[in-house]
User: Fold Sulfotransferase domain-containing protein from Helicotheca tamesis.
Amino acid sequence: DMVIPYAASLGSKNKFVIFTFFIIFGLAYLTCKNITPHIFATTFTTKQQREQHNDVDVVSGVSANNSMVNSVETKPFAANLPTVVFDLESRFDRIFLYRVRKAGGTTLQRWLKKVSEKHNLELSTKEGFALTPDDLKDNRTLFITMLRDPIDRAVSSHWFEGRWQRKTPRENRTNSKAQNFSSWMWYNANPKGDKFVWQCSSNCQCKWFGTNITYNPIDQTRMFKFDVDTALDTAVERLKKFHLILRTEQLSDQKYVSVLSHLLDAKDIRIGTANQHRTVHDVIPQTDLETLQKLNRLDKELLRLAFG
Assistant:
């Protein structure tokens, strides 16, 4: 028997229908390719909306810590860097930087000052005072913060600001007169007050992000209370509001910095790294390091949730 090819067996009308179908499918495919996800992402949740972008030079997969996965439980952005440029000038009026103490905030603030000037944005910062829901209400603000390994952060805090009283004359700042790490650690393990925390050695990042805020029923003034049972969950919920949560340790990684500069359309503005390369000369006894690990159980878990 003669085998008739399938295409040849179709009538002209059917051929036209199939041809039209493929044309429509092809046009739809090309259209979809030009729509890039504009991701406002945090380490804890992923909020997506599809917007039109014109040939964005996306830098993705810059390191193992910058991979994107689907499950919230497995961290949507391990390093919390999305891969599409933020539309700063039309989407935002302000950049808000919440500075975690001794986590590279000075370097980042100097850089963001130049970024904000380039894009005609206001830059505001907060440091030491507990983050509140009111800080995060403005939908025309780009929210940025950073997190740092709590052990490294505490060691840095002691070395650079905790060894002497603030008013100690420089000529009297000798190692023999310095407060040792163990004394500093225990003195600052439970800072007085919850609204404002400066020098701190225990779960400091959960204190800044996760302090419980209630209102006095008599005069409606705000009351701040750090609750160890709720602080981690509260910190996570507030961090969900941030567009970018940076990891201090990676600000010395040029690939990471390159992606960050790309996201904020600031490749022409250099991020200084001088403070990140200072040598910390503190030699911490092993027993103090083990104690410090226990004192920072919540902060360690916060960073695990954020960065893996």
About this structure: Residues 145 and 263 are 15 Å apart (CA to CA).
